[in-house]
Design brief:
Blueprint lengths: L3 E20 L5 E22 L4 E3 L8 H13 L3 E8 L10 H17 L5 H11 L11 E6 L3 E4 L7 E6 L6 H10 L7 H19 L11 H5 L5 H11 L5 E3 L6 E4 L3 H11 L7 E6 L3 H12 L18 H7 L1
Parallel strand pairs: 3-4
Antiparallel strand pairs: 1-2, 2-4, 2-5, 5-6, 7-9, 7-10, 8-9
Helix pairs in contact: 1-2, 2-3
The structure holds cytidine-5'-monophosphate.
């Protein structure tokens, strides 16, 4: 059988809001967050070939190998084997809080079943995503979404306009587990029941505003408190974004990347020039907020050749080879 290939864009995320509550029994912190996809992306070429034995190449230099873990997860779940080749072009800053590794993993969860003619029911796909990392399930959804629990329980929010955004990569990677540890050392994460209720009410109120298009000067990211003192340049970047007119301007996830949402592309370019005067010089990356509709359209486009579109465009994308594979058995 001929090999099948696809080249897919794996988009990054920012957190428009991020509140960390207490640690739950599973060791993960209870979160309230708003996730948002952006146009900045990695590119992954995926090659699939039928084989009796699974062989995966091209994932060698990738730290943590989430791409390989995702690929093995898909094949094992379906009891399938294949020869797979990956080529990753990395653009999303690593250790940036932009879900760079997670989106690559999610891209494999979306693309590989379509290439390989496999069908994974959505609840199982979400479970597989969560087993790979807390941010992975969001990339199965895209757009703007509220995240609860560990960050894996997601509910879509109304679509956002494709506003221009400046992403700022300060070049100081922050490890997520280390950021959570710093959070505890700072005495956070031991909230009383009353505080938890207050924080949830306030998050809820901000999210209602956001759902009406009033994006938030009031937004929060609890990690700024613990990560900024370790890397003073981050606070300076935030100030530059604010004085350049960003609303909101925040750090994303556990850092270290920051973002500013603007009204015009000119503002983005001026803000980029302003932040790049700082020392050590950060890198400004112009991008746009990416709605769920555009996220899905990009995915449908990049898998079009292999998709089953007989019942209209489905989400997640379905394979045109799935029924053929059943017949082959
Ligand atoms: O799930 P993920 O691999 O992204 O998590 C990395 C680490 O971040 C976890 O091992 C945990 O220490 C911390 N974490 C957490 N609470 C969350 C998400 C992550 O404590 N909701």
């Amino acid at each position: 059988m001929a090999a099948r290939t696809a080249t897919v864009r794996a988009f990054a995320k920012i957190n428009l809001d991020l509140k960390v509550l207490n640690k739950a029994a599973d060791g993960f912190h209870e979160l309230r967050s708003v996730f948002q996809t952006v146009s900045l992306h990695d590119t992954i070429e995926i090659g699939w070939e039928k084989s009796r034995k699974t062989e995966i190449t091209g994932t060698g230099e990738i730290p943590d190998n989430l791409i390989e873990k995702a690929a093995r997860g898909v094949l094992d779940h379906c009891g399938a084997t294949a020869r797979l080749h990956f080529r990753l072009t990395k653009r999303i800053p690593m250790g940036g809080g932009m879900g760079g590794g997670s989106t690559d993993a999610a891209a494999v969860l979306l693309a590989l079943p379509v290439l390989a003619g496999l069908k994974i029911p959505r609840p199982e796909l979400i479970r597989l995503a969560a087993s790979l990392g807390s941010d992975v399930p969001f990339f199965l959804l895209g757009g703007t979404a509220v995240a609860l629990g560990r960050g894996t329980e997601l509910y879509p929010l109304p679509e956002t306009p494709a506003k221009p955004v400046l992403i700022v990569a300060p070049g100081v990677p922050v490890s997520t587990p280390e950021a959570y540890r710093a959070f505890h050392r700072a005495g956070d994460g031991k909230l009383t029941d009353t505080q938890v209720i207050q924080y949830i009410e306030s998050f809820q109120s901000r999210t209602w505003d956001l759902s009406q298009g009033r994006s938030g000067t009031q937004s929060e990211n609890d990690f700024e408190r613990v990560v900024f003192p370790q890397h003073p340049v981050l606070g300076s970047i935030l100030k530059k974004l604010q004085t350049s007119g960003a609303n909101p301007a925040r750090m994303t996830g556990s850092g270290s990347a920051l973002f500013g949402v603007f009204t015009t592309k000119d503002q983005v370019l001026r803000a980029k020039a302003a932040v790049e005067t700082l020392h050590p010089s950060p890198r400004g990356i112009p991008a746009r907020l990416l709605s769920r509709a555009r996220y899905r359209a990009a995915w449908w486009r990049q898998l079009q050749q292999h998709m089953d579109a007989t019942d209209g465009m489905q989400w997640p994308p379905q394979s045109q080879y799935a029924s053929r594979r059943r017949n082959e058995r």
